[in-house]
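User: tokens in, sequence out, please.
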């Protein structure tokens, strides 16, 4: 499976051409997805490099064709949107290949190479690697396991990732709701800007103001406070009203 990735400039890379072939996607669609991702998050440009290859057109003529080479983070972000049992298998295969190649590359470059013998074989398993990933990447993995294997499969993975029972219940509800783009947008904001705080109440208006600033920074449309409140409810943060509206169990990170 290491053939899925290759070494360039002392780093491990995957090609958008190979990704398209492996996931049974049209390459122009994969390219479009990468461009949309970079438009939303220009800071991810270092994770994707534009490459050029010469493609034969017949009668000796050639044309320049573009493709992307991506590092491990770029691949994970791109492939998060690919769903289904087959897609899940390919994702695991690619990430395992990244792990093995990066471990082998580290062994070659390390001055204490004798102590690194067998590093490729001792690389972290996919499950252990997932434990080190950010919450949104873990959630994407759980979401796909639910699509591929149903709720029991998702619950098994949640337990393997070491989430406690409260986290599992919260993130399973979040998982069920995250198919809606607006809800998914709010979930991404929560992952970056908030933390769960059982029993604590925070003003819905204060939360929405921070969400709007977060969206503006990313060139996204925040929408109205009503849509925002509905997304919070879908993600497991009920509201209550006194003189103003509050959200229970959520607070901003200082």
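Assistant: Sequence out:
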């Amino acid at each position: 499976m290491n053939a899925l990735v290759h070494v360039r400039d002392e780093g491990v890379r995957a090609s958008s051409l190979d990704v398209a072939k492996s996931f049974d996607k049209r390459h122009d669609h994969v390219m479009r997805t990468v461009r949309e991702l970079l438009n939303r998050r220009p800071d991810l440009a270092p994770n994707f490099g534009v490459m050029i290859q010469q493609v034969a057109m017949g009668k000796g003529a050639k044309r320049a064709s573009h493709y992307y080479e991506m590092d491990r983070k770029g691949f994970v972000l791109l492939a998060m949107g690919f769903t289904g049992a087959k897609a899940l298998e390919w994702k695991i295969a690619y990430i395992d290949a990244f792990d093995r190649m990066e471990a082998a590359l580290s062994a070659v470059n390390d001055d204490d190479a004798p102590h690194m013998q067998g590093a490729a074989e001792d690389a972290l398993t996919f499950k252990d690697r997932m434990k080190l990933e950010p919450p949104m990447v873990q959630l994407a993995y759980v979401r796909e396991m639910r699509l591929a294997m149903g709720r029991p499969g998702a619950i098994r993975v949640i337990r393997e990732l070491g989430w406690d029972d409260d986290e599992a219940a919260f993130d399973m509800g979040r998982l069920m709701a995250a198919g809606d783009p607006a809800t998914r947008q709010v979930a991404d904001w929560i992952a970056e800007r908030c933390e769960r705080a059982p029993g604590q109440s925070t003003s819905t208006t204060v939360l929405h103001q921070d969400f709007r600033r977060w969206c503006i920074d990313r060139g996204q449309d925040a929408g109205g406070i009503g849509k925002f409140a509905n997304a919070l409810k879908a993600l497991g943060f009920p509201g209550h009203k006194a003189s103003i509206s509050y959200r229970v169990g959520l607070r901003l990170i200082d």
